[in-house]
Amino acid sequence: MSASQLIKKFDIDFTQEVIDYASKFFEDVENVRSCIQCATCTGSCPSGRETAWRVRKLIRQVQLGLKNAAIRNDVLWDCTTCYTCQERCPRLIPITDIVRAVRNIAVRNGFMLPRHVQVAGLMIKHGHAVPINDEVKAVRKEIGLSELPPTVHSYPDALGEVKKLLDETGFTKLVEEASKGVQK
Ligand code: SF4
Ligand code: SF4
Prior knowledge:
The chain is mostly helical.
């Protein structure tokens, strides 16, 4: 690999981008700079036992500015956000919060898994990620519940309000762009 190809792999602003984004919602994010790559996180990770997901690697990518490697990687979505790693990190790095921030940055750059686009589309269309069907209605009735839950299914007028919220937060636009494969 040539020097220029190598340089293109790095985005020197990525570490700060993650810190700035995550700091809007979470505390102690700056600690990510102090990771010592001890691997306690990956060794504790239930998802890592079943998948190719290695959270220590993501933290290293954030430290080094390897933005594309971090956000263009489907395994980023294999974390279940169980917080085990975050509770055990000896450097008190809010690891799970950082995973969530990197996922947000990935989506804002147009990287969303097709199944997430599909579920988000259902949310936009029906106000539910899992719309009701006859089978669910029958089960609800069988266990003594009303056929429809007290959500937009029972109050269809509220669907307009849900759509408005999704529009105004930018969610609808992000999903539309991701579904068209628009990447930034
Ligand atoms: S447990 Fe903490 S210090 Fe150790 S590798 Fe993971 S993030 Fe880094
Ligand atoms: S929060 Fe995610 S990365 Fe951390 S242990 Fe749980 S599944 Fe693994």
